[in-house]
Sequence to fold (393 residues):
Amino acid sequence: MSDFLSMYSVQHWLESCPQGYLVGTEFGHPPGESESELIVSDPLLREQAIGTTVQLVVGERCALAASSGLINSAPDEASKRFLATQTLDEARHVEIFTQRLFDLGLKKSELESAIEQYANPNLMKFAEVLLEKVDRKDFVAGVVGQNVVLEGMAFSVFEMMYAGSQTLNPKFAHTLSGTIADERRHVGFGENRIGSLIQEHPEKKPAIERMQKEMSYYMLATFADSFRNNPAREEFKKLRMSTSGAPKAEWHGADLNALEPEEMESLLADTVLKEFKVRLGRIGIEYQTPIRP
Amino acid sequence: MSTDPLLRHDDLQEAVPRQRFLLEDTGFDEVPPKYRRFYRKWRGPGDALAANEVICPVCKVVIRSTRELRPGDRVYCMPCMSRLVVVRAEDGGLEARVAY
Fold:
């Protein structure tokens, strides 16, 4: 118990992840699985799926830059090794979500222009706030921003997308399942390592609280842009109706197939903010309520 | 390191013996094989926990021991590598708190 840092080893990561839940997978899912025909064959749904996946690629590129950037500012060898494994996890996430864009029909030559076209400006701002802390080699703020705020958000977003994809798109659900398993380690590191470090650096709390408030605002603005005024709203209704009789897509007590986009936004935002509050409270940081866009 | 997530437990020092549980693999694959039966996925609000189970508040996985859990027990969540202490919750059940 006292030697908990010893668990942050490459060996443990190898046995759990590449030799564990990723065995036999190809870009995160069993070989041979493909995207739902319903999505690929419908231009509006396909474009919506590309837009959503671009946000995942952007978020994961930020996580890759942050986790690799934090390695040299980590105060101990075990944390450096953990962040090295997290860096590989994040690189894998960038790769599997990029592969999904190709599976949805995007050409390799179109990748960067599609990212430029669809990347949400608020998500880019969210990333900038975090990467500024990483660039300053502020390990405590960087890990709170990366492993508590960013990963905490990703954990809930992936879980919701997983619940919504299990019936409609098993291939994507399987891809997400491995990323959720990775996120468990990342949020665990964030809480456990920072929970002890923050006690040694209480002077860092005000700046971290401001960062959390700012990142939370940009996160909510990203959610708002994604769910409100959605041009594929009618298409989604069609998609939901096609699943009538299928098992409910349950997440936090709600059936995602029965929710309007605004209701989904509200459920996701409230869930993530509640999680932030609880997680930050556990490590001794006072949650700051963000402005609602 | 013991494979059971219940840490430093000595049956002989307890007046009331603990109930024992036989654990089966539930398909949880996020930890190395020899630890897998000690964890399972939480199925949401309707998922009832047995006397040997507690939810990890950090990663939401259900931690399972071969012994009944009691307040004061220290348990380890391998999927997120958190050290936890079992406490009595307001509703009378057991919950885990993170120990930093």
